Structures are given as structure tokens and as C-alpha cells.
Amino acid sequence: MRREHVRDLLQRVADGAIDVGPALDALAYEPLESLSFATIDHSRALRQGFPEVIYGAGKTPDQIVAIARQMAAHGDGVLVTRLPAGAADRLLSAFPEIDVNPLGRTAYLAGAEPPPVGQGTVSIVTAGTSDLPVAEEAAVTLAALGNDVARITDVGVAGIHRVLARREELVSAAVVIVIAGMDGALPSVVGGLVQAPVIAVPTSVGYGASFQGLAPLLTMLNSCAAGVTVVNIDNGFGAAVAASRITHR
Fold first, then answer.
1. CA atoms within 13 A on the CB side of 240
2. Is there a contact between 189 and 157 (Cβ–Cβ < 8 Å)?
3. pLDDT single digits (tens) 165-188
4. What 8-state DSSP symbol labels residue 207?
5. How many Å is the maximal CA-CA distance in the chain?
6. 100 phi and psi, to 5 degrees?
7. DSSP code at position 70
8. At how many degrees (to 10) do helices 236-247 and 132-144 cross?
9. What is the pTM of this model?
10. Cα(31)–Cα(130) distance, rounded to whole angstroms?
11. What are the helix (H) ranges across 122-194?
12. Of 145, 167, 166, whose CA–CA distance to 246 is shortest?
């Protein structure tokens, strides 16, 4: 149950629109629910503003569906990231209305009510087309958390004019997520152009000496542009959650 739902319920009790008994019934869900293979945190939305997210990697399709069923019963919506093979078909069978994004390896089932709307637009900027899986993970997460999303794709520093041509879009964003592999230089360029917070995401895209994303990670951590923050390699989800917390302050 989201904080907004609880606030509305308490206000209705205070106004005399609902009795204490039915209000207690509405709050009677246990905050934790134990399955044989998982413990579901149903109070996550109340504490943090959005429900627990299912990390699909390492879980079987049956486990993912079982967790999703219990979460969906609470009405807050279900977001699954890093879908393993076979899980999308099982989810679509269980929830025909679920939105599966094969490129981002995500699935999203909307809740009973839309999430609170974030202030402003979050721009997702990718250095290359190969970075799109991470970008789509971020985009789906942002949308699930109530954010307006803009995409600026394939504007890496090998053709610096490409990102400079999108400057007006960049400066109008509330938060900019910059996703890059290879040399990881794009966040520094964007960080020097905008006033908004810049969240850098290194990806594992690149040749041997990129060390599966370690090279762009170190570049971004050593950015000469002030105020650039960095999340882990390929962590589009983490960047999106950080951006959403900024837009929902």
C-alpha cells in the first residue's frame, strides 16, 4: 500500500467518512509475506513510495509468477527486471495485461491507481545503440514510478556534434541519465552542458580493455564535470530509482 493510499484512508477516518473497523481491515495485510523461496516486503511502498521490485535473474519463471501474484493482490503494481528466458511467456499467461519489454528485459503490471507524478522530465541519453538494453531498463522503471521520460539515442563522443545538437532538450530536463560504455566520456560532456543532476551509468559495452564496463566506470568516477554521480555497471534500474527520488521530492 502506497503512502498516498494510507494518507487518504486516515483522512477519511478523521473526516468520519469511514469507520475505524473498515480502515483497520484495509491495513490488515501483514507487512511481510513468506513463501518457501522468498519473503515479500509488502510495506516497501509505504516506506519508500514505490513497491518492491522483482529481480528476475537467478529465479525460475514459476518463482517469478508466484511472487508477482502475491504482489499484484495488493494493488500496487508489479515491476520485474532482468527477466530470464521463459519468464516473459509465463508472466503473459498469468497476467495478459502485463507489458513486457524484451530489449530492456522487464515486465510491468500497472497497479490499481497510477503512481504519483514526478516533477519534470527525465532524459535518458545513450552513447550508442548497444547501450539500449540498459536504457530501456531505466525507461520502464521510470515510467512505473510515475515519471515523464525522454530518450536521446546514439549521441556518443565519437561524433560530438550529435549531443551538442540536442542541447535544448538536455537543458530542459529535470534529471539526465547518461548511459555509455567504451571510454565512458559522454557523462562528462553532458555534465558540462546542463544544470540538472546527471546520473552516469557505465555499461559493459566495449572491446577487451573495457574490462566488462570497469574502464567506463572508472572514467565516470573520475569525471571532471562537477556533480556527476555514478551507479554500478549496467544498472539502469538503480539510475532510474535515483532519478525518480529527485523528481518526487
1. 27
2. yes
3. 999 999 999 999 999 999 999 999
4. S
5. 66
6. -100, 130
7. H
8. 40
9. 0.86
10. 40
11. 132-144, 161-164, 167-171, 186-191
12. 145
Q: Which amino acid is at 139?
A: A
Q: Where are the alpha helices (DSSP H) in the chain?
A: 3-14, 20-26, 44-48, 61-72, 87-94, 132-144, 161-164, 167-171, 186-191, 214-221, 236-247
- Asked if 39 and 52 count as a contact pair (C-beta separation under 8 A), the reply is no
User: Which residues are within 8 A (CB) of 128 and not within 5 positions of it... i.e. 6 or more apart?
Assistant: 154, 156, 180, 181, 182, 205
Are 176 and 197 in contact by the 8 Å Cβ rule? The answer is yes
Spatial distance between the Cα atoms of 2 and 31, rounded to a whole number of angstroms: 12
Ordered domains of the chain (ranges, CATH): 30-109 (no CATH), 121-247 (3.40.50.1970)
The model's pLDDT over 121-156, given as tens digits with 9 standing for 90+, comes to 999 999 999 999 999 999 999 999 999 999 999 999
